[in-house]
Description:
Oligomer: single chain
Distance between the termini: 42 Å
Number of helices: 13
Radius of gyration: 19 Å
Helix content: over 70%
Order of helices and strands: HHHHHHHHHHHHH
Number of strands: 0
Amino acid sequence: MRLRLAQPSTTQLWILVALSTVSWSFGPICIRFALQHDVPPPLISSGRMIVGALFFTPYVWFKYAGDIAAMPARSRWLAIFAGATFGFNITLNAALLEHISVIIGQALIATIPVWVAILEVAILKVKLKGSVWLGVFVALVGAILISWATSGEAPPLEGGNPSLGIIMALVSACSASLYIIIGRKVRGSVSFVPYIWLVYTSGAVTTVLIIASSATPVLGYEWQGYFWVLLLAILAQIIGHGVLNFVLRYLSPTTLTVTAQTVPVLSVLWALLILSETPTMTQVAGSIVLVIGVGIVLRAQNRAKIRSS
């Protein structure tokens, strides 16, 4: 006999959104503590992806095996490519925290909507309005200010290179935007759960390949390091992504956009409170300019969607 769960109330759904957002935002903090215990970035990202994929596998294969088998080959391969991009993205997210602070990393990663707009023009041949391009320009000015103020400061961990960390953060944001664009393309023809499981699994395989190609040792680290990797998987992957994916069955996809913009803000707050990271005035100014630019892009795109509907 199969247990049927009643649809959550609106209050319960928004409690789940809050739980997902807060859990997801602790991801960079877990990564920083794992790095402090000498766990290498490829192992951090691989642990996160493998635990997440394994956690959802029994449910997916029990309920959605037929959907996966029936998925068009082109959509399946695009989902696998999106997962590979996602795996590369979260490996960069871990690696960049060896070189720059959580605050600066999250500020630069927050440029994802800007790169989505740029890639929509380059890949999908979308025509953007002047207000979107204004937002792109403003956000890039903010990113340049942050990069200029950060490039000469001391790295958070010994041996770090702030300039390299800045490049990693921007590449991470760009790869995340590519993952989002692929998702938009595929999601029109396939169910969400099979798609996201393929993404998780492909991402896990990608991180394992990164470990193998870089000859990263898997064993021999302090137990505290493995603990932070496990906590990262539970908070960011299972609760953060998993709960949000469940909520999206009942709420508008706009929730994802709102949540994605809230997570970096909360991560910055935890970095201030837990890691005692304090940005310079120039970094603060650049972050404000960047956020304004991203806000202009999101507002202009939302208006365009409303008008087209």
